[in-house]
Amino acid sequence: MSLSSVHGTLSSLKTCQTDIGTGMDTITDVALDLVETQDKNMTTSIKEMEAMILECAKLDREINNFVDVMKQATSEISTQNLESMVNLSTKAKELFRDRMSRLSDADLQNHPKVVAFKDNIQNSSSQGNQNAEENSDEMDDEITVTQTQVNLTCPLTKLQMVNPVKNKKCSHNYDQEAILSLITNKQKQKKTCCCPVVGCANSDVRQMDLVPDQVLRRMIQSQKRQGTKT
């Protein structure tokens, strides 16, 4: 075993995490389809998908902790005699076992994509109930929404959002790339990032408070399809 091979493995694991995240987004999309179509087995199916999301979150958490442990272990030996590499595996296992023993499955409920899954399902269900009450004659095939109901424009770019995220604190939406860029720039200036929505009192927007808003993303995609048809 060499340090270069360890770093290569860690890089592969990070790529794997990206795939896990994509899979979790796909599960959420399928669940939203069920909500919108009011499938008769919707409740049972969504519970099964929530269980799948939690399993993905658990795997994602394990990878995060393993990567952190390996970085810690390799940093401690990189400045020592390379003979200590033989103890790397044992040390990493001990650190990983200790860290995982202090974690709880209940913590998985706070995983950003688990939070996003629940929020998106709830929002989609509420939207569906509202649409049913209004009994609109101009219902879109997939999602009923008008610009008067939902603002699809990013407060930063002033353009229609592409990958909308929702702030858990103030419930405002932004385009992901734009808000992350703003947060990064403020961090470089050692300043906190205020919510860019005029009148919002949230003076500390953090990346950890942002969750994907897949309901809004689907609304945007639906509007684009309608525009293409016309």
From TrEMBL:
Record pathway: Protein modification; protein sumoylation
Major place of residence: nucleus
Organism ancestry: Eukaryota, Metazoa, Chordata, Craniata, Vertebrata
The protein's name in its UniProt record: E3 SUMO-protein ligase NSE2
Residue span of region Disordered: 118-140
Gene3D superfamilies: Zinc/RING finger domain, C3HC4 (zinc finger)
Swiss-Prot/TrEMBL GO biological process terms: double-strand break repair via homologous recombination; protein sumoylation
Ranges of compositional bias, category Low complexity: 122-131
Domain SP-RING-type: 139-225
Keywords on record: Ligase, Metal-binding, Nucleus, Transferase, Ubl conjugation pathway, Zinc, Zinc-finger
Organism: Takifugu flavidus (sansaifugu)
